[in-house]
Structures are given as C-alpha cells and as structure tokens.
Amino acid sequence: MFKNIINGIKAYFGTFKLISKLGLWKYFAIPILISLITGLCFVAIAYFFSDNLGALIARIWVWKWGSETFTTISTGIGFVFILVIGLLLYKHIVMALSAPFMSPVSEKVEMHLLGETKHVHRNTSFSQQLSRGIRINVRNLFKELLFMIPLIILSFIPVVGIIATILIFLIQAYYVGFGNMDYTMERHFSYKESISFVRKNRGIAIGNGIVFVLMLFVPVIGFIITLPISVVAASTETVKILKEKGFVELQNPSEEISKIEE
Fold first, then answer.
1. In this model, does residue 140 exceed pLDDT 60?
2. Which region is the signal sequence (predicted)?
C-alpha cells in the first residue's frame, strides 16, 4: 500500500502541464467559486464562534484559580474543533457540488491517456452526476465522522494525541481521495462497485488526499487550485489502474500505453 501512496502523491507532478495541454481550466471556474465561497464561510464560522464554544468548554473548570488560563485554552480548543469539523464538511460539500463539472474533466483525461476504447461507458446526465456526487460524499462524511469525533477527543491526550492526529490526517486523506477517484469511476462502476474498487486501491486514495489536505492550508490559493489539480491527479492514477486490471480494453494498445507510462 505504501507504494500506491507514493504513486498517488507523484501523480500531482505534471498536472498543470496536462491541464493546460487539454484546455481544462475553463471547466474549473464554477468549482473554484464553490470552493472559495464554502472555504471562506467555514473560516468565518471558526473565527466568530470559537469564543462561544470555548466559553461552553470552560464551564468544565469549576475552580476560580486558573479559570482565565483555562478559558483561553478552551477558546483555542473551540477554534481547532470547529476548523477540523469545518474542513471535513468543506471537502465533501465542494466535491459533491462539483461532481457534474469534474466528471467531464476526468473523461477528457481518460480519453487523452487511452484514446478510443472498446469499453462502453455508463452515460450519466448532469443531475445523475450531481446525485451520485452527493450520495458518495454523504456516505463518506458519515463514515469519516464515525472515526473522527473519537480521535479528535483523543488528540488532546498527551502522546496518544500524536497518534490520533496522524490518524485524523490519514482518514481525511483517504476519503477525499475516494471522492476524487469517483469522478472517473462513475463512468465504469456502480455505487457499490466503486466502494469495493477504492478499498482495493486505498493507497492511491490516501496519496491523492494527502496532497489535497496539505494544500488547503495554503491561504486562498489552496481553495482555488486544490480541487482542479487533485482531480486530474486522481484521474490519471485511476485510469492506470483500470487499464492494468483489464477494466478497459484499448483499440490501439501499443500506441496508447506509451501515453499512460509518460
């Protein structure tokens, strides 16, 4: 799996060149707008409501001595908690709403890498792509919350908190990579088949998601370019796996395989 994680990360190299070559930037205008608005909303919520949550947490401290210090710490905890949950929600909201715009991008990457194939794709409409994106991301959101909430609590415990924080990061990476891979898989697999496919290739999902999550910490720019390049990176790796596993059959194998290996 470690090798696949590395491959998922390496897939980001050359994405800008591929996006420009295929003229994909025009497809990203609405997703970028969705990403910016959603991201700024969650940052604002974290900023304005961290004090309220901090005050609520501070009630645990019933003693007068050290109350001010504990209140300050509680405010910080409140900010981190809202930011983490906000980041979690942000990813899935953006990926779900962007599905109809990212699927064509994924399809163009696949056509570039494979050319004409004998595989018959599932033809889906705008509304079907949006519905699938919402279904996948709502499912992933609840799965993620199931793991995240206990880990967030454990993250405040010394030593154990380090392990919990690493797990939080990897879980977020896995599910965001899952969403990015599904833009390609929705043309090939049903909902249940996609879940099974990602489980068998979870390293690629984690590698793709690691870069995605890290890039979100780059102010403003992270919200603008993260989704476009992560979708292209995920698409290239997913297409490679589909070819290697025999899910697609090429019309001109020798000619197209070289594109995948570039």
1. yes
2. none
